[in-house]
Amino acid sequence: EGILQANIRLANEPEDRRETHPCEKLVADYWKVEHKGRLADDWLKDVVRWTWRVKLLSQLETELMTRIRENSEDEAIRVFAKNLKDLLLAAPAGLRPTLGLDPGLRTGVKVAVVDGTGKLVEHTAIFPHAPQKKWKESLGTLATLCLTHQVELVSIGNGTASRETDRLVAELMRSYPKLGLTKIVVSEAGASVYSASELAAREFPDLDVTIRGAVSIARRLQDPLAELVKIEPKSIGVGQYQHDVSQINLSRSLEAVVEDCVNAVGVDLNTASSALLARVSGLNRTLADNIVSYRDENGAFRSRQDLQKVTRFGAKTFEQAAGFLRVMNGDNPLDSSAVHPEAYPVVEKIATQSSRELQALIGDSTFLKSLNAADFTDETFGLPTVTDIISELDKPGRDPRPDFKAAEFKEGIE
């Protein structure tokens, strides 16, 4: 700090500061100061120079530099927000048993196995790298875990010793091809923040902090969005200079991105964590905890209407949140779609006029594309809304995230 300085210079500004600056001429012209052979002319010229260099230049430089910095911050925050969106909307691997590895050298590689629902089923630590170098023993431990829990995916954190751990898993796959494993290196940014958080302590009160990190690494491969919402957005690592911009504006922008992503994907009411539910439009931490408590006490939700039985879940909250909450295999097939309960009468009208069952209507692309949306509009639901409803019926519960694909790297190339 204080070593580098930035200055604003005009293209035609003279190098020698003793020469007249172009802006001094502008000041002189404005006040009609010119050399007329008077005794005070030299003094007036000095006043013009002083006015520009002492008063106007410093003020303009400050104003322009502030404006440039604000524009730069806005652009940087926009880039950070885009980076976060890409991370949150990364392709989920799905409900598949996963082995999470948090690499390390001296402290060992922390291992956590989670089942298809993300539940921790077993954990341990292995020491394949220096100084212990228990390579063969570590391979045996991993093979046993994968066989016991029918693991399909191996999620490797990209921190210290990631490359060495990746080679370990590659050898595991070569030595035990029948396991049918797929290995993926994932970003472990924010895993340590989550593992030391109050949320992680509530979920795993008796678990070591390092193992919690391995659980997070495994889960973020299964469903990046559901896991990353547990971490403060700024801790996920969205940009190199994120600490140099306005933290208030950055937080506001990143929080909005998280909420947009959660609402765009939708949330399964019967499996979502409190942290994920709290990001749904209209909900907060208290309401999210109340939903989870109701679910634990009364079992799975059978319909969206059951939400109104949750403590402090009022009509306005239902109006804001219901469209983003999904009930899979519930009493009403529309509850698993993005169609808001207020719009159910439109769907029922379509079914009645076409003499079709509701279940048969959903997903019938040929029939739905033949409909004229204007035939089902009224004072409440306009043409754009009805068009969106028909589009959602065509592909109910569609996920905006891409399909999961694992890249295959040629062994031996480093």
UniProtKB/TrEMBL annotation:
Residues 96-195 form the YqgF/RNase H-like domain. It comes from the Eukaryota. One of its GO terms (cellular component) is cytosol. GO terms for molecular function: mRNA binding; structural constituent of ribosome. InterPro entries: HHH_9 (IPR041692), Ribos_protein_bS1-like (IPR050437), RNaseH-like_sf (IPR012337), RuvA_2-like (IPR010994), Tex-like_central_region (IPR055179), Tex-like_dom_sf (IPR023323), Tex_YqgF (IPR032639), YqgF/RNaseH-like_dom (IPR006641). One of its GO terms (biological process) is nucleobase-containing compound metabolic process. Residues 395-414 are annotated as: Disordered. Gene3D superfamilies: Tex N-terminal region-like, Tex RuvX-like domain-like, YqgF/RNase H-like domain. This is YqgF/RNase H-like domain-containing protein. It comes from Capitella teleta (Polychaete worm). The lineage of its organism: Eukaryota, Metazoa, Spiralia, Lophotrochozoa, Annelida.
